[in-house]
Write a structure and sequence with these properties.
Layout lengths: L29 H5 L3 E3 L2 H5 L6 E3 L12 H22 L15 E8 L10 H5 L8 E2 L17 H19 L2 H4 L5 H4 L4 H11 L8 H4 L8 E3 L5 E12 L2 E16 L11 E13 L1 H6 L3 E10 L40 E4 L6 H7 L1
Amino acid sequence: MAGRTDPPEGIPGGTPGAGDEEYQSTVFDESFVRAARLQEFSAQERLEDHTTAVRRRDPEPAEGRAVPRQGIALALIILLAFAAAIYLGNNNPYDAPVRLNSDPPAADTVVLVPEGDVPGGADAEAAFAGTPAAGYGIGAGGVHLPDPRATDHFSREQVLTALTLAKEYVVASALTPEVLGGDTVTPVRELLGAEQQRQFDSAMRGHGLQSVPTDWLVRFDPAEVALADGQVRVDGGFTFVETNDDTLQVTARHVLAYALRAAGTGDGAPATVAAFTVQRQLRLQFGREELRDRNVLVREVELIVGPSDCARDPSDALRPLLPGERAEAPAAAPVDPFALDGGRAVLCGAYAPLSDPRESARTH
């Protein structure tokens, strides 16, 4: 016979060792015989026309094994899970964050030139006396935020986060003494995203083709001037608006008043402290990715600084005039319009403070 090696219904006796083991290899049960491919003709059949003793039988179709109900249920669960994943993937109610374009900030600087000698005072209070700066807030405590409110596509919490980050950037880039004196740039750099960090680093090394250090922060050359008072006077505020469905823009506009003296000059010398003013407007943008990562995207910077000299380049550091100094002629440095790497043209204006500290000192 040919076919299966074991009886279709299992080993006779049901389990190993059952039955007569001595004859187990030669004795076949009825199921084994029925399953054989060759079948012997009966005696009557052999007396008729058949010349062979056996005939070949077509194999009977194997009975299908019943699939367990648990398997069917598990397969259905897996199919439903895959279908749900595909559906939710194609119908995600939370859109993926849109990455904003991280170009370097567009920037302009206007230098204000005094008519004559720069006035000064014995200390910061004297330098600011009689000017609006005398009533300004001091340091980070003078930077106030408006009440946040939800916009069409940003929640109140997201608006508050954007305003808070904008304030942190103003404080880090214009009110931190270590940054103003050129000791560090880390507080500003940490607030930027990865792409603008690379642009910032290039600008700080003097390799930036599209931005310069004073586009990102306010600082002075420590070899020339020093802060007479680390508490910067500040006035101004913030506004916010959606520019599109994915972008929240915060505008920070402030007047910053610095008390400066010549480097190496100590306290007590008469008329050694000058009031230097920076009006600074920042346009900062935030997408959902920036809000999630707590990054600032600096879009535009506008500076109006004075008293200063248009002939001195303010790109690397601002160049204030100190008490007794005046702007040199010519009023502005020459600009080569054919030089792509020749630096940025300096815009000049007239420095006209509302009050001259020397007049205030005479009346007091």
